[in-house]
């Protein structure tokens, strides 16, 4: 699986490069006269050049990520069949081909991003409001592919917009696919949304040009009946206008200002009293919330240290799982990859990063879990969740670790993110945007050890860029005599 990590997506560029080399060798050896193949190679080469020049942006941008995966799965399969190369089984330096799951994953990411950041189909680059070094858009066929996939997955209203974009771009028919086929599919999506009158109008347009079109003929019969009942039921199910956003979504968009009455109680200061070393190198602390307790430390981890963490984590990245109903599973609401590093045992050069957390939190590292490094992929996110365990009555929290529940979370931001990717707390109206070198710290439990539901939080979808974080979860055992008041003069 590639789409859940920008780090992995990057490998696909290498894979495509090796395929292009293959093709070039084929052309040189056998097919000097094959102009069409040469043209295709040159076009693919052009795209690849763009991809290599801007690799991280290219693989994290939902449109170009889709183009890359689609090229490998569609264009290269066709070329493979022509030149006698089994592209599905192809691998280069252990980099395997992407699969249909990657295509679905990227398409779902597109829908998520489109809704959240209000992006018109195919206008990603324009709508996110930053100038990209490349200008890539999807063609008619690709828009159609996305629309069809979205409809099959039940995202009807989004699929309608992609069908419309496909029709808008349609300039020639493809083998086995005409403009009328697309309109008939659009009619299906409109009907699913109970937009019968529009669907009927389009069906009549098809029948005007192709009176025998069998799909349109059968659609017409269904739609005539449906429009009659539509008039009676007064257009129910219609969704128009701008979407409504929840608190979570507004925070992701950076669209909520905190009230002045709260802001005036929050300060930034140098923290230099917790240990003598801090006299020389104080921590740069920004208060985010007093209750629940939450702070951000700035410039708390150096670029050098970040490089070391990423190097250790890269070979160990796996799809991130979620623990629910007593087992770990893959879910759509957490699309990222992670690696667990046992710093005490194996990654001892990273010890200062963990040790520093004792200064940042006042909590002893005796009950820390392993360090978890996370990398998000195309539209990668982690929906609202709690970090603490909610064991059944009489059961222990995190029994395999045996250190009690997660009393607190520290999360280092190991990269900047170009657009999106905030960490948001909907119940307290707080959103923190990643900044390379910062860290966020909050308590998950009340002082008596019960869970604090106000700590509900989420990682918003990454719109553009590569998001890396490192989580240090701190458990209860050994912290009995530590107290958050020591950290916050306001408490
Ligand atoms: O990446 C983020 O911003 C939050 C991640 C998180 O909440 C988690 O991994 O538990
Ligand atoms: Fe979390």
UniProtKB/TrEMBL annotation:
Source domain of life: Eukaryota
Coiled coil: 27-54
Main location: endoplasmic reticulum
Keywords, ordered alphabetically: Coiled coil, Dioxygenase, Endoplasmic reticulum, Glycoprotein, Iron, Metal-binding, Oxidoreductase, Signal, Vitamin C
Cofactor: L-ascorbate
SMART domains xrefs: P4Hc
Record-given protein name: procollagen-proline 4-dioxygenase
Originating species: Anopheles darlingi (Mosquito)
Biological classification of the source: Eukaryota, Metazoa, Ecdysozoa, Arthropoda, Hexapoda
